[in-house]
Amino acid sequence: MGGQAKSKKRNPNNNKPRRRETRSNGGAGLVGLTSQERMKVKMQEKAKKKTAEKYSVEQLLEKTEECMDNFDLQMARLFCQRALDIEPSSLRILEMLGNICAELGDVDKAKQVFLKAAELSPDQGHSKYMYLGQIHTGREAISYFSKGIEIMTDILEKDMQGASPEEAAASASEGGASVSGRDVCLAFCSVAEIYFTDLCMEDGAADQCKESITKALQYDPLNPEALQLMASYLFSTQKTEEGRDYLLKSVSSWLPSLRKGSDLSTNEQEESAQGEEPPPPPPYEARITTSKLLVEAEEHEKALEVLEMLLEEDDEVMQVWYLLGWVCYLRQEKPDCPESENYRDCARTYLTRAKKLYVKLCCDDPPMLEHMQQLLTDLRSAQGGDANDDDDDDDDEDEDTVPLDDIADDFIQSSEEEDSMEH
Asked: What are the entry keywords (predicted)?
């Protein structure tokens, strides 16, 4: 009897919930984390709560935009993330955060954010589909671009039909604002490029490519990238003259705006000031493609002009030096060229520089390197020298016969000399 009474006395609180069980229910998300990680999560949750109590979403987004204007993308990301913590289903904030992560090069996070935005609002907001199309390939990329195009064209149609102010405001709040014909045009260009590259071996790829470019030009007839893409397509189908017309139309839409003001006549300057703003020039890489197409169309002078402008923007791009050398080589071969000797010297200088950059930048394009070496050999032979003999010229012109290993050593030596001069 005494033992039973003792047993009852020892267990008076059997019906009370244990503290351990309460903790596991309240912190299920912390299971499996170390004590340090749990502390970090708790501090983050506390900071989120404090932020929500102190700042509104609009205030956080205002700070986000301010940081973006000052190119402080890391802080912009923090402010935007805090805004998303308060409104996790806001398409506007999701797309803003996705764009910031994309600018920072965090592809995985940007993809995660844009996929969540697509899940929450699949039929509103086109920019997420544009980014998802860019980071995917083949048919999957086309499906994303096509969905983005569908949303943009729907917005443009509503604008043309005169949507009510309420509808316009709703569209803006859901990320559907600021859609232009140029946006749709570039999206169709992206689709065309996929048919031109990733899916070029599929049946009907050429027709799909041309159809996409045609639609692009319907939305922005003077878009330089669309015009150039059409030129590339026509060159690939052996329609050189027609392609040349599209190419020159593309170049003429942006090249004058890049020329120095002193190179423009007074009338051209007045027309430029009074007329509409010219379209922005294509990106750097696209203009390299422009120069290649100009060479193919035998528009050597324009090709040189485009390449020299690219060189002014960035003189560490090996391909630009190589193309400059190639164009000058082609010019000096013309029998009626009065400046063949000058072009020959320029070709040799450009190709030598390209060859040095090839080593310095650790490029991996053996056919291009072989072509450079062959052109330099031909140039030495044209000048009456032995193709296998080393020259004794000064500066860059003597490195075209030096082994590649020695060229790499020369870069190291040159860098050391530059450092000593600076100090």
From this structure: TPR repeat
Give the residue-averaged pLDDT of 211-235.
95
Distance of CA 41 to the CA centre of its chain: 35
Tell me the torsion sign for CA atoms 13, 16, 19, 20. Answer: positive
Domain ranges of the chain: 43-121, 123-221, 347-423
Q: Dihedrals φ, ψ of 394, to 5°?
A: -85, 170
Locate tokens 């009474």: which residue?
5
190: closest CA among 154, 145, 139?
145
**Signed CA dihedral, 62, 67, 73, 76: sign only:** negative
**pLDDT-based confidence at residue 36 (cuts at 50, 70, 90):** low
Cβ(332)–Cβ(347) below 8 Å: yes
| pTM, 2 dp | 0.71
Compute the chain's Rg from CA coordinates: 31
Which tokens go with 361?
A: 């930048």
User: How far apart are alpha carbons 183 and 270 in whole angstroms?
Assistant: 29
Q: Is 238 helix (H, G, I), strand (E, B) or coil?
A: coil
Q: What is the pLDDT of residue 91?
A: 87
At residue 395, the pLDDT reads 46
Q: List the one residue out of 222, 223, 157 whose CA is nearest residue 186.
A: 223
Q: Regarding the domain delimited by 43-121, which CATH topology (the fold level of the hierarchy) does it fall under?
A: 1.25.40
38 pLDDT more than 70: no
Residue with the two structure tokens 């859901």: 174
Helices (H), 87-204: 91-104, 107-120, 127-135, 138-160, 165-173, 181-196
- Write out pLDDT tens, residues 119-133: 998 988 898 999 999
